[in-house]
Design a protein that fits this description.
Elements lengths: L1 E7 L2 E6 L11 E10 L2 H9 L18 E2 L3 E9 L11 E4 L2 E2 L19 E2 L13 E4 L3 E3 L6 H5 L1 H14 L6 E5 L3 H13 L3 E5 L3 H10 L4 E3 L6 H8 L6 E6 L4 H10 E9 L11 H7 L2 E4 L8 H10 L8 E6 L3 H10 L7 E5 L1
Parallel strand pairs: 11-12, 11-14, 12-13, 14-15, 15-16, 17-18
Antiparallel strand pairs: 1-2, 1-4, 3-5, 3-9, 3-18, 5-6, 6-10, 7-8
Helix pairs in contact: 3-4, 3-9
């Protein structure tokens, strides 16, 4: 079968690999992926990997490179193991890709995403979404409403990253919000904040193409170029008595962006770190203290979020499909997928791959 496999930095190949064979384990689900999104994590692997993908056997899954990529995907169930009862052949699903023990400290508390042994379909598992077939575990297979499209179902995974940040920030009806960065997760965070009831949403993004895209998909947002405009003046103009936003969500993973969020948030407001920092950031801890703020950090998402996000999307209040800017065949995954997303012009947010 055809599969997109990561071998090393700048080495992603479309290859013919053996399809899953043999008897399924009691908790296995054989699926046929529909569409798969290229994630920022995939891009990091392509640029400088292996980082998350395992060079030696993964501590929980035993997987090693080369790795079939793809952890943001929807699929149709082809077959199930003897112990699987919540899905059946023919069902459409969204894949919750995290794999974890359920009997360690975090698993016993339902905090599966925090297990130090956690793996991920498409990153540290024998299978991934960028293939004609994949084997996942029963808890990875999340049924979706018939009203969801295959693309919307694939977008639940990145939407969960964004919504977890929104939850941690306590965004609610009437909240004022700053989103720093309008990449794929930043754009989903804007849409999610609106779905959560935010009344004022300010987006800071230096890239003109991303500013254009976010203005098109979220016309209610105030879009700011931090290089040519005074972000703090705009925040002051749009918040009560100029105090700053209730919640600032950092979706870039850069020091300047984090500190801009701290500057923009009101006293006793919340700053949420959604973007992943790949190096240490220098911060002004005294300012954090003087403003009496809360700084929240996020890692992945609680896996229990899937049905809730599916309902939000199905209701029309969380239009995640708007962040998709291209749809490609797996044969073009490097040139029209990874390289296109790395273009500094920033013409794309989310590219969807069909295997």
């Amino acid at each position: 079968m055809r599969a997109v496999r990561f071998h090393g930095a700048r080495d992603i190949r479309v290859e013919d690999v053996p399809a899953p064979s043999g008897v399924l384990l009691h908790d296995d689900v054989l699926v046929e992926p529909f569409v798969t999104g290229i994630c920022g994590t995939d891009l990091h692997e392509y640029i400088a990997g292996p980082i998350v993908t395992p060079s030696t056997p993964h501590v929980y899954t035993g997987a090693t490179n080369p790795q079939i990529l793809g952890h943001e995907f929807s699929a149709r169930v082809k077959a199930v193991g003897s112990g699987v009862t919540h899905v059946k052949p023919g069902d459409r699903i969204s894949v919750q890709p995290l794999l974890f023990p359920r009997d360690d400290y975090f698993g016993k508390r339902g905090l599966y995403h925090l297990s130090p042994k956690m793996g991920c379909v498409g990153l540290s598992w024998a299978w991934g979404g960028m293939a004609e077939l994949a084997v996942i575990k029963d808890y990875n297979a999340q049924p979706v409403p018939d009203t969801l499209t295959d693309e919307q179902a694939a977008m639940i995974e990145p939407a969960a990253v964004a919504m977890y940040g929104i939850d941690r920030g306590g965004v609610t009806a009437g909240s004022t919000v700053l989103v720093s960065g309008a990449g794929p997760i930043g754009a989903l965070t804007v849409l999610g904040a609106k779905a959560a009831g935010a009344s004022v949403i300010i987006v800071s993004e230096p890239n003109p193409n991303r500013r254009r895209i976010i203005a098109e998909i979220a016309p209610y947002a105030v879009v700011v170029d931090p290089k040519t405009q005074n972000l703090l003046e705009i925040v002051a103009d749009l918040t009560e008595e100029g105090v700053g936003v209730d919640v600032a969500l950092e979706c870039v993973g850069m020091e300047a962006s984090l500190n801009a969020c701290v500057d923009a948030v009101r006293r006793q407001g919340k700053v949420v770190q959604v973007g992943l920092h790949i190096k240490r950031a220098s911060i002004d801890a005294m300012q954090w203290a003087l403003k009496d703020i809360t700084v929240e950090a996020t890692w992945c998402y609680p896996v229990q979020m899937w049905p809730r996000i599916a309902r939000l999307i199905a209701s029309g209040s969380f239009p995640v499909e708007k962040v998709i800017t291209a749809r490609i065949d797996a044969a073009d995954v490097v040139a029209k997928g990874f390289e296109a997303l790395l273009d500094p012009a920033g013409n794309h947010l989310k590219i969807i791959v069909r295997t």
